[in-house]
Each structure stands twice: as structure tokens, then as C-alpha cells.
């Protein structure tokens, strides 16, 4: 569903205008990937081609919802795929038509499609050697990058020393560590505002950066300058010119709303704005042009960092989801924490208010469970139900404890915290149409739709993405 579409479901959805293109897209679709070929439903075709001139794919949970795959599927319909925030902390795994696997971190997922221009916007932080490492990997697999990637001349460089400081900061936090990807993201964004280096030298005993080491690093980066030069552009100008020329732009979000520096579970968050607002600041385009925002929601929840996770599953239950969903970090390889879908904190009251969207992935991972739970409300220690997602982590922690302690009682006697739905036994990964899904799987999707409050028009979007992802799951081994 679209933040800017006329039938936006939430009254609180941002009032942005949908700038729709004429029905015919100015650019013929480029070569389609295996994933795209697998998308069947006619209305899917219509909805995909009707996506706004500037659309976005954003995460609605704690990241790893499958945004990269969706961007890969949609990229042939867009002229430009742009990243607006984050850096190499993102890990988007995609496969090309020959089945070659690409783990992308900085390069936008549109790169696999020959005709798509990729833009790394001003809001992204760039580790240059990592960036070229990705390009080398792509080119050795015959993906042409030359002239296809533009890097903003306003984007900040992320140095190795940012990564060192990231690790030292985490060590300093001891048991309260954030669980960062140690890619230097926080320190790099901090040094946009502050002079980090002096502080780091006096603060961390293990900080080995001497003046000569700094000089060496700068020299090393100078050597990248020649190679980097052709990639650099005033991407604010390029994007705004492209909008004038009616070109279609797809924004690829990294991370997700629950990791947003403002709206996420601070301080267990990333240092950028992965929500809708980050698109404008990270690319330099007006909010008026942003149309459809597709929020990707996984059929359950995963998270790699620390912090409260009210619907987390431990022991065998958690292990089962982790194994079936291959929930191991693309960037760090860390096992992800897994749990039930948490309607309360996600689509219903919070993410949709902030971004105005909803959609669904990885339903097949839940196959084989006898029952499926959905977190529907948070009760506090005094048994009061929280009316909105709390900004205060102590409250959220209490909810978590309370939730876990009392979950079965509520399920058994009141049905209040978790709603329990019947599971389905058959494998649905090769199913291509919604009506062929097991009845219980449809019931699950429809119940979530009801809980989220998506009206029929928007429900189609959920199904659209469901179709896409059922198809993708069938064609491409899961690796998120
Ligand atoms: P940072 O972005 O490396 O500073 O990490 C901050 C938090 O965001 C940690 O909890 C990370 O695990 C999480 N995080 C960052 N990038 C991703 C991602 O792409 N997927 C999932 N979690 C992420």
C-alpha cells in the first residue's frame, strides 16, 4: 500500500502527494530476473506498473525482511534505484537469473538489471575499499558497473578507524552493547557532527591510531581517488533532473523502522533514518514527489542486535524459525533472534503511522507449525494495556518480561497478549496463487490484514507482495 495513495488506510499516514506516471512507463522493462519471471498474478502486473514515479521499499521490523529481493524484482520497472541512508551495515542477498548469489552492502540491489542506474545518495556513509570490493565481485560475475553507479559528492566517507572505534565502543558498553554490525556506521555518522578522533584517542585504551597511522590511511584513500572520481556526481541534481524527465526512481531502504534513530528501540538502533523521512534528507528530493512506499513485513520477526524484543522465542521454538528462515546475518553471519509477528509494535499502531504502509514476506517459513501466534497487545505490569508503542525502553522491557511470564495464561484464559491461529502442515513454497495457499495460511494473512486494519484495496498490495515472495521463495533459496 502507498503512503501517498488516495486510499491510504491510516488517517495518520503522511500527506504526501502521489506523482503517478502516465500508464505507459517511459522506459521499456529491462531483462527480467528469475524472480520476476516467477511473478504470475495479472493484478500484480498492474499494481507493479502503477507504482508511483518515486516509490520506496522500506523495512517494517528490525531489518532483514527481504527488501533486497523485492527491489531486485521491481528494479526492471524503474530507471533508477537509489540508496538514501545507512552503509555497509545493510546486507541484501540477491540471485541473478543464472543463480549466482550476490551479497550487496553498499551497491543498490538494482545493479543486477543491466538498464538500471544506481545512486548512492548523500545520506549514505561509504567505506570506499568495501565499495570497490563489491564492484570487483559483481564485475567478476559479469555484472557491468562501469557508469552505472553514481555516488553523491555530499556523502561522507567511512574510514577503517570508524570501524575500529565501533568495536571499541561496543566493548566499552560491556553487557549493554548494541550489537552493531561493527561496520563503523555510528562513529561515521557521529563524525558528521563532531570531531571524533581526538576523543577516541583519549577515551579508548585500545585505540591505536597514531598520527602516522592516520596519515597512512589518508594516503591509502588518496590512491582510491582516481578510481572513485568517475562515480562521483551531484546526485541531488541528477535525481531532481530525472524527476523532471519523468524517470522512475525506486528508493531502496536499508535497516528498518524499529532500528530508526528516532523511532526505533533507542539506543539499540542504527544511526540513520530508515523510515520514510530519511528518503528526503538522504537523497535531496521533495516529500511531495514521494508516492508509493512499500513496507516489507516478514511473517514473523527477527533481530540481530540487543534490546527489547517482546515476542522473542527462545529454545527449540526460536531455533526452528532460525533454521527454517535461514536467519543468519548477511553482513556479520550472526544468528538472528527470532519471534512471533508483533502486530502491536509494527503495522497497526506504529510503523504505519510513521510510514503509511504494509506488506508480507517469508510465509513459507511458518509451514509445519501446529499453531502460530501473533502479538496483538502489550500489557504492563499493572495489567494496563499500552495504547501506543512506548518510547521508553524500561516500559518495553517490562512488557517483555510480563509478556513472557504471562503469555500462556493470556493465551489460555484471556487470549489477550498473543492471538493463536492454526498452522498448516503443507509446504507452500511452490504455490503461485493466493487461492492455492492452505486455508490456514490464508486465514493467517487475512487475520493480520484485519488486525492491521488494511481495507480491501490495500489488502491487494499485501497479496501482491505475498505473490511475489511466494514466487521468490520458490525460485531462490532463502538466505536472509
Ligand atoms: P549499526 O547499524 O551497525 O550501528 O548497528 C546498530 C543496530 O542495527 C544493531 O542492532 C544492528 O544489528 C542493527 N542493524 C544494522 N544494519 C542491519 C541490517 O541490515 N539488518 C538487521 N539489523 C541491522
TrEMBL record:
InterPro entries: Adenylosuccin_syn_GTP-bd, Adenylosuccinate_synth_dom1, Adenylosuccinate_synth_dom2, Adenylosuccinate_synth_dom3, Adenylosuccinate_synthetase, P-loop_NTPase. The keyword Membrane applies. The keyword Cell membrane does not apply. Pathway: Purine metabolism; AMP biosynthesis via de novo pathway; AMP from IMP: step 1/2. It is an enzyme of class 6 (ligase). Its cofactor is Mg(2+). One of its GO terms (cellular component) is cytoplasm. The chain crosses the membrane at residues 457-476. Keywords: Chloroplast, GTP-binding, Ligase, Magnesium, Membrane, Metal-binding, Nucleotide-binding, Plastid, Purine biosynthesis, Transmembrane, Transmembrane helix. SUPFAM superfamilies: P-loop containing nucleoside triphosphate hydrolases (SSF52540). It catalyses: IMP + L-aspartate + GTP = N(6)-(1,2-dicarboxyethyl)-AMP + GDP + phosphate + 2 H(+). GO terms for molecular function: adenylosuccinate synthase activity; GTP binding; metal ion binding. Its EC number is 6.3.4.4. One of its GO terms (biological process) is 'de novo' AMP biosynthetic process. Gene3D superfamilies: Adenylosuccinate Synthetase, subunit A, domain 1, Adenylosuccinate Synthetase, subunit A, domain 2, Adenylosuccinate Synthetase, subunit A, domain 3. It comes from the Eukaryota. Belongs to the adenylosuccinate synthetase family. Plays an important role in the de novo pathway of purine nucleotide biosynthesis. Homodimer. This is Adenylosuccinate synthetase. It comes from Panicum virgatum.
